[in-house]
Design brief:
The chain crosses the membrane at residues 152-175. It comes from Shewanella sairae. It is a multi-pass membrane protein. It holds the Pfam family HisKA. The chain contains eleven helices and twelve strands. The protein is an alpha+beta fold and 427 residues long. It has three domains: 7-153, 2-Layer Sandwich (Beta-Lactamase); 188-286, Helix Hairpins (Orthogonal Bundle), CATH 1.10.287; 291-426, Heat Shock Protein 90. It has a five-stranded mixed β-sheet with strand order 6-8-9-11-10. A four-stranded antiparallel β-sheet has the order 1-4-3-2. It is rod-shaped, with a radius of gyration of 47 Å. It starts with 6 loop residues before the first helix and ends with a strand.
Length: 427
């Protein structure tokens, strides 16, 4: 199952990632520029010293190099051992500066590093200007530079955290009206469609709320028209159906046995129409859940429904087997009758050959169709929308009454199991 993405997590995560990327990029850029500035400062100092040496000579300038923490080495062999182990003479090119870690035991003990600048005197040849950096109790120029670099990272982390907090705060502030709109839309009902729409602080959200109300009003109008049509049609059909049934019962006593099959078909059709109109009426009712509960014998009601619908099995090679325990329940009898009648009628109507097993144990009613023809149940189920319109009513009533209805469909078997709520059950 594909998980739905959270817009909140996406916006916050995306904003935080972009912010972190920007701050990290700026920090690395600042760090790079910081080192470039140090290199530039070192190069400028060394170039200035080179110009003075070329103009005045080594002896006058050498003492003054201590001001910039630099030393003068006129021979490669005179350089500190760590520099010679790191760079060969040919690698130290004129006009460029280099960095060398202290790799000798003495330099490691002193945490000493070197910056080297290679210069060339007009008359005396190549010489080297070296700045030595080592740890000491007194903060040196390089110690200060290191501490400033640490400050850059510290400030970057603090700024990142502050910006993340600011983004979260702003997002929560902006998302609060959206949550209000979500809560309001979930609580909408038919009675709220004519009430004034509250303001959600932003024009876009107010327009969205108006569209939600308009859509729900359209759906409610369609539902009301359909409900009224079903109610009017069902009520209008009741009278002719009653006339047909009463006249068919009268004809049953008058006509000859030869014409009886035709009359039986009329009676079965009228019964089917009667059940259909009752189902349509119950589907349009909104007060199903308020039906009063009463004590009655569930097994007697099931026997009565089996006998009432037995005409559906006439002329079919179907064996009916019922195993009913004596069960007394405290439930809405009208609703139990509608549910059980629809399940039994569907079981008898949608089978031509096989066996129907109806079982009642405790508070569970099970109706099982075992068909002898594989294609029969599948074709009927698809044609009649999962065994008839009555099943929609059954599901609706079960949901409102907290009854458990399970349907299992197999090629040669159809099983409907109805479990009533335990409230008011007597055995």
């Amino acid at each position: 199952m594909k998980l739905r993405q959270s817009l909140t997590a996406l916006v916050l995560g995306g904003s935080s990632f972009i912010l972190l990327l920007l701050v990290l990029s700026y920090t690395l850029w600042a760090r790079e520029n910081y080192f470039r500035a140090l290199d530039t400062s070192f190069s400028v100092s060394m170039h200035k010293a080179e110009e003075l040496i070329n103009a005045q000579g080594f002896e006058p300038v050498a003492p003054g190099l201590a001001i910039i923490d630099a030393q003068l080495f006129r021979q490669y062999q005179a350089l500190p051992e760590s520099i010679k182990l790191t760079f060969s003479k040919q690698e130290l090119q004129v006009g460029k500066h280099y960095y060398a870690d202290g790799i000798t035991q003495t330099d490691k003990a002193q945490h000493r590093d070197y910056f080297i600048y290679t210069a060339e005197h007009t008359n005396s040849g190549i010489y080297y200007l070296v700045q030595q950096y080592e740890e000491s109790e007194t903060a040196s120029y390089w110690d200060i530079a290191d501490s400033q670099l640490q400050q850059i990272w510290t400030v970057s982390v603090i700024v990142t955290l502050l910006l993340v907090i600011l983004i979260v705060f702003c997002f929560r502030y902006l998302a609060k009206p959206i949550y209000r709109l979500n809560t309001w839309s979930k609580q909408l009902s038919s009675s709220d469609l004519d009430t004034p729409i509250p303001s959600f602080g932003y024009r876009e959200l107010d327009r969205l709320a108006e569209q939600i109300i308009q859509s729900l009003r359209q759906v409610d109008n369609i539902y009301q028209r359909e409900s009224q049509f079903l109610q009017f049609a069902s009520h209008e059909l009741r009278t002719p159906i009653t006339v047909i049934k009463s006249n068919a019962a009268l004809l049953e006593q008058l006509i000859s046995p030869v014409n009886m099959p035709v009359l039986q078909r009329i009676i079965r059709a009228s019964n089917t129409m009667h059940h259909l109109t009752e189902t349509l009426l119950w589907l349009t009712r909104k007060e199903i859940a308020q039906s009063a509960a009463s004590d009655f014998q569930l097994n007697s009601l099931i026997n009565e429904l089996i006998e009432e619908h037995s005409y559906l099995l006439k002329g079919k090679a179907v064996k009916l087997q019922s195993e009913l325990s004596t069960v007394t329940v405290l439930q809405p009898k009208t609703l139990v009758r509608i549910v059980a009648a629809n399940l039994i009628r569907n079981a008898m109507q949608h089978i031509d050959e096989g066996m129907i097993i109806i079982t009642l144990t405790s508070n569970r009613l099970t109706i099982e169709n075992n068909s002898a023809q594989e294609a029969q149940l599948n074709s009927d189920a698809s044609k009649s929308d999962n065994f008839g319109l009555g099943l929609k009513l059954v599901q609706q009533i079960c949901e409102q009454q907290n009854w458990q209805l399970t349907i299992q469909t197999e090629p040669l078997r159809y099983l409907a199991s109805l479990t009533f709520s335990c409230t008011g059950e007597h055995i």
